[in-house]
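Q: My labmate handed me this sequence with no annotations at all. I'd like to see what the chain might look like in three dimensions before we decide whether it's worth expressing. Could you predict it?
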Amino acid sequence: MSPKEKTPRQEMPLLDLPTRKTTFREVALGYTPEQAIAEAKRCTRCKKPRCVPGCPVAIDIPKFIALTAEGKFLEAYDVIKETNALPAICGRVCPQEEQCEVVCVLAVKGEPVAIGRLERFVADYAASVGKKDVPPSVTPTGKKVAIIGAGPSGLTCAGELAKRGHAVTIFEALHLPGGVLVYGIPEFRLPKRIVAAEINQLRDLGVEIVTNYVVGLRASVDDLFAKGYDAVFVGTGAGLPKFLNIPGENLCGVFSANEYLTRVNLMGAYDREHTATPIFVGKKVAVLGAGNTAMDSARTALRLGGDEVTIVYRRTRQEVPARAEEVGHAEEEGVEFRFLRAPVEILGNERGWVRAMRCQVMELGEPDESGRRRPVPIEGREETIECDAVVNAVGAGANKLLFRTAPDIELNKWGHIVTKGETGETTKQGVYAGGDIVTGAATVILAMGAGRTAAQAIHEYLVNGK
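A: Here is what I predict for the chain of 466 residues:
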């Protein structure tokens, strides 16, 4: 074993536990410069690094880590920004443990290099010293591109196209840009000032952002072409709640995770001293599902004042799709887990408010198409969970509003856009798409990778007509 493998992975400093449970301040505090250098020095400088192919936006990971190890943090930042428009965000919310870090050679016998934490440190350091991106000196092409949706894929696509000299306008339905970064991910995981700062970097590149503009109502895709846009990128995400269609789902105190988190995050309900956004504070909250959105909802419920918050999941811990770090933080903060439980009815009181939830007890059978063992009901076994609020975080789908005015954009049976290969090209000429509206709900970094790939295809289309 090499000396670098013997060096322990640097632990991320965290906000103390008692404070975490009562505040929306960021939980992970970030590396110190000394920690960042020590962690970067763990890298073995592989001759054939596998971490780069594992990154959806193809960051030159060995190069930025080598510069970090030398204390050249701003130079490392420049390397990251060559391909990643949102490094401070990615360093916080991307599942590096399933992408670049899982293929690190150190992971074979121990802990991989903490690539995500180093990316966050470098981006935060650059911001702390007032580092500004220098817009590339490019000749304007005279071409205009409309981006529909200011989420991760749209923001990335916009930045890449602006760097190539195209005039880019983003049309965002909500009053703030950022998509899931502002309405879905809580402040304690991703402070909104971080999102705003990274979006302002795109504005410095010349990207125009128009908010409160719903394409599909105020204008159609064809209207955008009529206004002089030469290409359109659709990055509207997957923000339509999915429901279980069980009795009692319409009771007071039942929320979709989309509404719950949007009220808290985008509309500021967490900051009750300064905002008047209403939010129901349940004392016994049941959260359905076990993905990152479920963890965000459960941890939010605790911070709002929940005494008992329970994750209800129909499989076991082994099949939980959320990041291990988020699950661990949830457990530390007091979230309980009820595994192998599937809700079958939400029970109400005489006033129409939630009082409990009836669940079917499950066991795991054979693997399904996802590769995970399928949950199977155990005959005659049920359980009732007392609760006064239920947050449904079992998934989200595509909103079809835009497509009512664009019937020539082909959708699949799930309502997602059909594209030709990885370029993002749709069945409508000049229209490209990427992110969750194509793949279904996935990760921020995969959406960004799709936006980057589509930007290259759009550029070639605008320049070469292909």
